[in-house]
Amino acid sequence: MLKNYSSAIEFYLLGFHGSKELHNTLFATFFFLYPVTFIGNTVIIMVVCVDKRLQSPMYFFLGHLSVLEILTTSVAVPLMLWGLLLPGMQAISLIACGAQLCLYLSLGTSELVLVGAMAVDRYVAVCNPLRYNIIMNSHTCIWVVILSWVFGFLFQILPVYATFQLTFCKSNVLDHFYCDRGQLLKLSCDDSHFTQFALFLMAVFIIIGSLIPTIVSYTCVISTILKIPSVSGQRKAFSTCVSHFAFVVIAYGSCLFLFVKPKQTQAAEYNRVASLMVLVVTPFLNPFVFTLRNEKFVEAFRDVMKRCCQRLKD
C-alpha cells in the first residue's frame, strides 16, 4: 500500500467489513435490488413515453427522475457487487475514482433540482389549476429538465476538481465501497478544513435551496386542499401529491444525513449506511412510491402490457 509517496495514482476500496457469509448475504440482497431498480425505473420511462394519457408535466418530470435514478445507482452498485463477489480489496484508478465521484454528485444535484421543480408543478396544479397549462407548458418543462442537468454537472465540476488537487499521501485505501469524498479527504496530507467548510456550504445551498420551494409549495398545496369542501375532492387532490411528498421525505432525509455536516470526514460506517440509502434504497423505492397508488399510471401500464402481449401473439 502507498505510504510515503507524494500522491496516489490508484485507490483500493475496502468495501464492507465482516465475514464471507455477510458478504454473500449483502451480494444476494443488492444483486436482487439492482435489477429490480433498473427494470422498475425503465418501465416508468417506457410507459410515460408510450401512453398519451401520461403526456403531462408531472409524468414528464417523473420519467426524467427515473433516468437519473438508473444512472445514479449504476455509478456505484455494479462495482460494489464486484467487490462483494471477489475476495480482497477492489482497485480503482485515480481517473475512474474522480469520474465516479463527479457523476455521483452531479446526478444527485440534478435530481434534487428536479424534485424541487416537481413540487412547484404540484403547487401550480392544485393552487392555480386554470393557469396550469399556460404556466407548465412544454417549453417550460423542457427548459426545467435541461437546466437541472446542466446545473447539476456544472455545479459539481469545481468541487471535485479541488478534491483531487489535494495530495493523498497517508494511504491509498478508501474505507468505503465507492470513491466517497469524505474518505478521500481523510487520506489527504494537506489542510482540508477550508475545503470541508466550502463543501458543507455548497451542500447546504443545493439541498436547502431546493428544499425551500418544496416546503413552500406543499404548505400552499395542503392549505388549498383543506379548503376543498368535499372529502372526495380532498382525497383526489391529495392523491396527486402524496407519492411525490413521500419521495421528498426519503430523498431529502438521506441527503441531509449524508452531506449537510460541517465535518465531511465522518466515520466510515456512518457514510456507508447513508450512501446505501442514496444509491440503493431511494432508487429502488422510486417506482413503487410513484406507481402503486397512482391509478392513472397503473391503468396505462396495464394497457401497454396488453398491447405488447397482443403484438407478441400476432
UniProtKB/TrEMBL annotation:
Residues 40-290 form the G-protein coupled receptors family 1 profile domain. It is a multi-pass membrane protein. It comes from the Eukaryota. InterPro entries: GPCR_Rhodpsn (IPR000276), GPCR_Rhodpsn_7TM (IPR017452), Olfact_rcpt (IPR000725), Olfact_rcpt_6C-like (IPR047132). GO terms for molecular function: G protein-coupled receptor activity; olfactory receptor activity. Its main location: membrane. One of its GO terms (cellular component) is plasma membrane. PROSITE patterns: G_PROTEIN_RECEP_F1_1, G_PROTEIN_RECEP_F1_2. Keywords: Cell membrane, G-protein coupled receptor, Membrane, Olfaction, Receptor, Sensory transduction, Transducer, Transmembrane, Transmembrane helix. It is found in: Cell membrane. The chain crosses the membrane at residues 26-49, 61-85, 91-120, 141-164, 197-226, 238-260, 272-292. Belongs to the G-protein coupled receptor 1 family. Putative odorant or sperm cell receptor. This is Olfactory receptor. It comes from Equus asinus. The gene is OR9A1P.
